[in-house]
Amino acid sequence: SDLTMPNLSPPLLSLSRLRCHVLLRIVLMLCLSGGAPLASAQTTLEDAERGIALNNHGHALAAQGRYAQAQQYYQQALPDLTASDARTQRNRAATLNNLGVALAQQGQLTAAAAAFDEAWTLRQQVLGTAAAPTLLSRHNLAVVLIGLQRDAEACTHMQAAWQGRLQLLGPQHADTQLSRGFIERLPACQNPQ
User: Fold this and answer.
1) Which residue in 77, 79, 146, 160 has a CA-CA distance of 20 to 30 Å to 14?
2) pLDDT attached to residue 42
3) Is residue 96 within 8 Å of residue 122, measured between CB atoms?
């Protein structure tokens, strides 16, 4: 699950309305394993399998809008997703991203920012800086930073997410356009200080 916002009409939104929309109109976008819950592959790591199952349960609850319950499952999954293999670390990053969505949906933006930041950092290490999930976590972090009124920091992250998406997905992709839309509406991106 990843955090994003539906397309907004550029001339109709002031920054204060954009902030309100960020908080009120955050939607859940499926991105795990091509839009599905975490996939379980054969492994001898029972803990990782349990973590994946807990994440998947949380994912199902989040899809129903039951974010407080989903949050509990994501938090229970994280201690089981600590093995150092790449597969477990990818699943940990996805679970952190899901946790960020659940927290943001409940208005817990500071905690959501921490979850997105950890997901982004981990995805950089495991997938690289230009991978779509890495860029998505960076975009999500930027969206939450806007809600926290940390506009300069949000602009830095959003511009990097947009540039990466532009190169990876192309200018017409919905995710690229979404990041660009945020940049166009955020004064910190227009008037750097």
Assistant:
1) 160
2) 40
3) yes
